[in-house]
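Think of the structure tokens as a kind of shorthand, similar to the way a musician reads notation: each symbol stands for something richer, in this case the local conformation of the backbone. In the example below we present two proteins back to back. Begin with the first one, reading the sequence and then the tokens, and try to describe in your own words what changes along the chain.
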Amino acid sequence: MLQNIGIPGLIIILVITLLIFGPTKLPEIGRSFGVTLREFKKGTKDLMKDEDDVEADKKVEEKML
């Protein structure tokens, strides 16, 4: 669905967002969105790391048997 937006669609979305929130709130909204995205990426990395650790532990246990 998001692949079909294009440049004109993004411009329209940005103009509507500017009208709704105003120019003073946009940097704050962008900052909070960036923090949220960073936390999501960190959580995803931690989850993948934990999964890799579990797989490595299983391989060590298999070798010990």
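Once you have a description of the first chain, move to the second and do the same.
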Amino acid sequence: MRGNIIEELYYGNIDPQDRGYRPKSPAKKASDSLNDLEEKLTEQLAGENKELFLRFCNAYAEFMGECELDTFITGFRLGARFMMDTFLSEGAPFESFLEG
């Protein structure tokens, strides 16, 4: 990165979704299991049932994408609130003996 995070975001050099699974991680194992199960079910289904299952998979993936977006936005806003509180708030339960 060149240093200016806003510029990096503008030029598309920052992509929070550009991530992969660590080998042997719980997420990798779960993802592999889901892929294997989907493949096995797809092979066993035919006709209308197969189409219905694939529509379900696509709808679920779309729903999960929306959930991830919401979680990202919520986390980003929470982080911004932490930063605002850190830099804009002087309040604390005790007084500081270091000041004045």
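Compare your description with these statements about the second chain. The chain has a mean pLDDT of 89.
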